[in-house]
Amino acid sequence: MTDFEPVIGLEVHVELRTRSKMFCGCSADFGAPPNTHVCPVCLGLPGALPVVNRQAVVYAMRAALALHGEVAEETRFDRKNYHYPDLPKGYQISQYQHPISTGGHLDVHRPDGSVLPVRIRRLHMEEDTGKSLHEGVPAGQSGVDFNRCGVPLIEIVMEADVHSPEDARLTLQTLRTIILYTGVSDVRMEEGSLRCDANVSLRPAGTTAFGTLVEVKNMNSFRSVQRALEYEVRRQTAALEAGERIARETRHWDERRGITFSSRSKEEADDYRYFPEPDLGALRIERAWAAAVSATLPELPEVRHGRYVAAGLTAYDAGVLVEDPPLGDYFDRVSGVAARTACSWVTVELLGRLNARGESIGDTRVSPEWLADLVRLVEAGTISAKQGKDVLDVMVAEGGAPEAIVRARGLTQISDEGALSGTVREVLAANAAVVSDFRAGKDKAFGFLVGQVMKATRGQANPALVNSLLRKELES
Amino acid sequence: MSQPQLWEMPLHALHRLLASGAARAEEVCAAFWDRAAEQDPHLHAFLSVRPREEVLAEAAAVDRARAAGTALGPLAGLPVALKDNLSTAGWETTCASRILRGYRPPYDATVVSRLRQAGAIFLGKTNLDEFAMGSSTEHSAFGPTRNPWDLGRVPGGSSGGSAAAVAAGLCPAALGSDTGGSIRQPAALCGVVGLKPTYGRVSRYGLVAFASSLDQIGPFALDVADVATLLGAIAGPDPSDATSARVAVPDYSEALQSDLSGLRIGAPRELFGEGVDEDVRASVAAAIDLLGELGASVGECSLPHVGYSLDVYYVIAPAEASSNLARYDGVRYGPRAAGDDYVSQFAATRGEGFGAEVRRRIMLGTYALSAGYYDAYYDRAQRVRTLIRRDFAEAFERFDALVAPTSPTVAFPLGSRVEDPLAMYASDICSVPANLAGLPALSVPCGLSNGLPVGLQIIGPAFGEMTILRVGAAFEQASDFQGKRPPMAVLGG
Amino acid sequence: MAISAADVRHVAALCRLAIPREQEEAVAESLGRILEHVQRLQTCDVEGVPPTSHVGELGDTLRDDEVCPSLPQEVAVANAAAARGGLFLVPRVVDGAGAGQG
Questions:
Q1: Residue A426: which domain range?
Q2: Residue A411 domain-assigned?
Q3: Which of the residue ranges A10-14, A116-120, B170-174, B258-262 would you say has the lowest mean pLDDT?
Q4: What integer pLDDT is reported at residue B92 of this predicted model?
Q5: Cβ–Cβ of C37/B311 closer than 8 Å?
Q6: pLDDT tens digits for B43-93?
Q7: pTM of the entire structure?
Q8: pLDDT tens digits along B368-415
Q9: What band does C1 get if pLDDT is binned at 50, 70 and 90?
Q10: Do A278 and C97 touch (CB under 8 A)?
Q11: I want to staple B224 with a disulfide (CB 3.0 to 4.6 A). Which of B82, B299, B452, B472 is the partner?
């Protein structure tokens, strides 16, 4: 039996978070009563004309530059003609022949540490459509709301460099993180500000031919992208193995049923009749403008990832910090301590406590400077790790500097050898049976003895010192 | 000679009467309103006329403002008509189409706001070929307009209602739109002055689009001075129209001179060729001689690719129109046909709502843009368009203005071309080139042929309105057409 | 330029125009005549000539990202043949049948 390899190309729409729409001054905000963010332009009234929102162009450039695309010196808008009730003009203003950016790439870091490079074919600007609603309207009818119509979008078309549904999900997540860094969009799949379509075909493993493309739409979460593609790969594999031909078509993912279904009839074959938008002249992008936009880009995820790995973090830990920019920013301010240690305190200790309390890194009482102080107290042996965690509990719940908490609660660690030696000897004397177990080769007995010392000092003993004193006594 | 009636007077004469206190705006507006009420049943120049009391109330307000010494705009208290493809807030804007019947825009076109700002009082909305697609105004869904010079003939089109209204004294000025000659050709056929400005000179915001890269709004009036005043009122950049040019608006009244010495005027031989009636050619040739007598140096020139103009136009204009008219789906405005699902309902709404000529052009344009044909039709037409623009650019290195007939024929009989699209399209043969190149062009009456007006077309370089107005003004003062109006007997006036 | 009734049906479907069966031949004939006329364009040498899509200069007219007042809802739907609750009503749209992005 032939093994088939999936060939997956992703097309991603990102809604830009401008204040006003792409071609008119209506608010681009989400959630208003229907048809209250509309005007002659976005309602497609006769005679109304589009005027391009400068900020949308800047945002498109930011995204393009973050993806290493080449921003065009001259870009144009085209009309994409098709009929649909939520498309008021009967065409969508988009870009076809001269997109704002071509080329580019992103690197997908897989959990196993390997890297998948994915090339970007093009990035272009366009306007969103309205929405058809089916609730609260008479039976057999739909209601159309044009509030979303004209909200600026960028479409990012990637090359078919992805060969597994899981990689497709990771690619999309990587792209999301990059866009998040540029600040041009909320990139929330659930709210539709990030939308993904995928072209999937299968080919016999080891060949370079292309199979028949099937376009999959309506995947509303990262998980559903992976699930839908897994389903589609299974479906196409079964069809090919049964000797069937794959139809070139568009299929919709049904999240509830976990299947894709064919959604467009053949007679409506796409013929978008693109032609240059006569209402908008070509837009020249001076190099100085592109350079100025480039200069405003923050450190990008892959650069940050590299910086963390170079500082000694594992690829996994670096990934956790990179994917959550506020968390990464917090981590960056925990300075003066070893990166690995700081990372563990931030992502495990602090984040765990915050999650339990339903707080976020953005609104915690624990400043990164205080967390760094706390880590230093532990590192210096002034308090034990256990005490450090107790102090952090207090910091999270009540706030305050760690030194003050340590002082107020008398939590200083016992690091005085003389003071601890007595306790060690007492514990050994009281546990003669365990001592003989240890001497008989039971290593576990040692841990018990350490525990007893810690108990006797109510956790205040310096564990490293306890260890060395115990060994000295036992080996003497 | 008796004192002319108010409705016979041009804007500047009416303006003088108002400014001097010799007449009130209310009287002026009433004179035109009453004239329209009396004569329009013969002409059908208007699709809608505002209620008399509403018009007179606005006029009275201008009179009061004048009496109070308020500074007034250049058109204060003067009645103006608007082609019914210009959006007017709360006032039905139909484009002479069933598909827009009852549509009341929630906004004014930029030109409408600007005229209002200049003090103009709107009298009514004028008839046109449906969506401005036609050269005779016979393609109006609400019936044709008749030519005031001969009620059995067409007024030209598509702005036939505006041209006829001005010619017959139903209003002293009107706006039209010109995509392939739709201002100039009816101006010529009705014996009035009409100007198509440079593409981008006047904002298109609110003009219901036919072919966006060709459409331009412009004025009709009885003489060049009035056209200059109207242009000054409507021209200039508009932040709502990205294709409006950021070019300062000069004082067009400075163009009004009687001397043409030093001007070089070219006559492109291709625009006098096949299809141009002998009478028209003779009349325009005489006009060119007169320009020479006025001091201009006149010479022949050539626009080698201009012969492709109609072919280029009848690919590009329908292609853009097919897209511009895709929005008429019966969802947000306009009547809607019955249908079980949205596809069949949309198709029925459009099939029933558009007239035959509009349907033909939508089909033609859709075909020209469709997969497999784009390169052979649309793309090729746009390349030939470049060659035509280059021809003009070269001609304007040698000449300050070009002259030609506006229309190859005088007004033709109603019904004579309406069944033959190619014959109708040929009416635009002399006017289309200026649209393809985006150039300003003026039509001034230059004579009568068997009692029907002939138009002289003056084409300028981009933003050369001053030059063509100067040529037009000098010509009209020297010409014996000045003051000629349709014979009253025809209208029973 | 011969245009068939099938071509007419295809183009009519693309631009959503209902054309009665009995008119298809006449429409085909009329379109064919016009297309035949514009065939003259094929005789013009356009080698190396760029297309003109705009006669104006580069359209560097951009607007600032400022929110302007929108139409009141009742004005927005005032011209609609059918509206309810501020929504434009259309015959039920099947999910996902649109050609655009979702």
A1: 417-475
A2: no
A3: B258-262
A4: 98
A5: yes
A6: 999 999 999 999 999 999 999 999 999 999 999 999 999 999 999 999 999
A7: 0.91
A8: 999 999 999 999 999 999 999 999 999 999 999 999 999 999 999 999
A9: low
A10: no
A11: B472
> What is the side-by-side strand order in the sheet with A141-145?
A131-133, A141-145, C87-91, C83-84
Q: What is the DSSP letter of A414?
A: B
Angle, helices A301-310 vs A315-323, to 10°: value is 140
Is the Cβ–Cβ distance between B230 and B222 less than 8 Å? Answer: no
Map tokens 């623009």 to a residue: B389
> Is A11 inside any structural domain?
yes
Note whether B14 and B172 are within 8 A (CB).
yes
Letter for the amino acid at B169?
Answer: G
Q: Nearest Cβ partner of C89 from A86, A143, A264?
A: A143
| ipTM of the complex as predicted | 0.96
Task: Determine, for residues B212 and A83 on separate chains, whether the beta-carbon distance falls below 8 Å.
Answer: no
CB B315 within 8 Å of CB B338: no
Percent of chain A with pLDDT over 70: 99
Regarding whether A361 and A267 lie in a shared domain, the answer is: no
Q: B239 with B487: CB under 8 angstroms?
A: no
What would the mean pLDDT of B173-192 be, rounded to a whole number?
Answer: 98
Distance from CA of A3 to the nearest CA of B (A): 37
**Would you list the domain boundaries of chain B?**
6-306+385-491, 307-384
Q: Is A167 within 8 Å of A222 (Cβ atoms)?
A: no
* Domain total of chain A: 3
Intervals of chain A under pLDDT 70: 1, 264-269
Distances (CA, A) of A113 to A106, A116, A222, A343: 15, 10, 20, 18
C-alpha dihedral, B439 to B445 to B450 to B452, nearest 10°? 80
Distance separating alpha carbons of residues A97 and B337, to the nearest angstrom: 37
CATH number of B6-306+385-491: 3.90.1300.10
Of B95, B331, B374, the CB nearest to A85: B331
State CA A431 to chain mean position distance.
Answer: 54
CB pairs under 8 A between A and C: 171
